[in-house]
Amino acid sequence: MTLLPDARLPDVRCLALAAAVAGLLAGPAVAATVAAPVEIRDAWMRPAAAGMSMSSGYMTLRNTSARPVRLRGAATPVARSVTLHRSVVSGGVARMETLGEGLVIAPGATAVFRPGGNHMMVEGLAHPLKVGDKVPVTLSFDGQAATSVVFEVRAAAPDAAPGAPMPAGMKMR
Ligand SMILES: [Cu+2]
Has residue 138 been placed in a domain? Predict the structure, then answer.
């Protein structure tokens, strides 16, 4: 589990209190900003050797609420930018597209970022990333508080154990 619930809960309480106070002052039109109802697991990032300025990040997100949630973007202090991308193959040529509108996760649905599919493009790294490093990433969601996630630098996906069957439709990297 890479969410930081202990660090997050006090903020939620503060926000709830602030929202309650604001509600008393301003009436019922005030909408509280609440923590995103999203479970995140298997967050990992590729290593980057010295001289490399790019990496990519992957994770699995599950929307635990009864409403759609839109992942809007991400940021990390160790890189200039993090962009949501997807890999597409058209005419036999693989290329990447920016998810300009973010990624909507339906109620109860799971969104997977993995090699060959959706991924987070990490550009302008401030320093190399080696296996075992922990990279803090902030995910932003429409209408929700930002969520902090720790990405572990790994050489391969957490579920890519030797001998494990590949999920249908997933290509070897
Ligand atoms: Cu990309």
Answer: yes
